[in-house]
Design brief:
Layout lengths: L1 H19 L4 E2 L3 E3 L9 E9 L1 E9 L1 H12 L8 H22 L5 E3 L3 E4 L14 E8 L3 E11 L4
Antiparallel strand pairs: 1-7, 2-7, 3-4, 3-5, 3-6, 4-8, 7-8
Helix pairs in contact: 1-3, 2-3
């Protein structure tokens, strides 16, 4: 499983550098519980199917979501509105699409459209009861954080 995580770290760092113009600093990945408590206020989810199944999720508090959207749109946002939702979904879409290319050496995959979940202490429904969820925390904007969570389970035995 861990060999599938590195492309997500690299892609996430590249996407934020190239599209948002900011640096992400990856922290130590860890195995996340399906019911782990968190402080995230918005999550964007993309599912994977094909020779593997799973999901990639980017989660963050309101403040970094607003800052990211401000940079992408060129104007200030004060709340999680449709532009913030769209920006968060587009970021996970770019991350998943680029990571998919790296994973296709091992799996043929199809990715879904982004789904957004918001609200404090929201829950994510993960595919497969036995699939491990790897959480990769990142520091952004000096004092903010976000988390990229990835769960991939091979269907083909790869």
């Amino acid at each position: 499983m861990e060999k599938y995580i590195h492309p997500f770290i690299t892609v996430c760092e590249d996407v934020f550098r190239d599209f948002v113009g900011t640096k992400l600093t990856a922290e130590r990945p860890y195995i996340s519980s399906r019911n782990e408590e968190h402080e995230w206020e918005i999550s964007a989810i993309i599912g994977f199917t094909g020779e593997a199944r799973g999901a990639v999720v980017i989660s963050m508090k309101k403040e970094p979501a607003l800052k990211i959207t401000d940079i992408l749109t060129g104007h200030a946002h004060t709340d999680i509105d449709n532009e913030v939702i769209d920006a968060t979904g587009e970021i996970v879409n770019i991350i998943a699409g680029n990571a998919k290319r790296g994973l296709e050496e091992t799996f043929k995959l199809i990715i879904s459209l982004p789904t957004i979940v918001r609200g404090k202490n929201h829950r994510i429904t993960w595919p497969g009861e036995s699939t491990r969820i790897i959480a990769i925390p990142f520091k952004i904007f000096e004092s903010d954080s976000l988390c990229l969570s990835v769960a991939i389970e091979s269907i083909t035995g790869a």
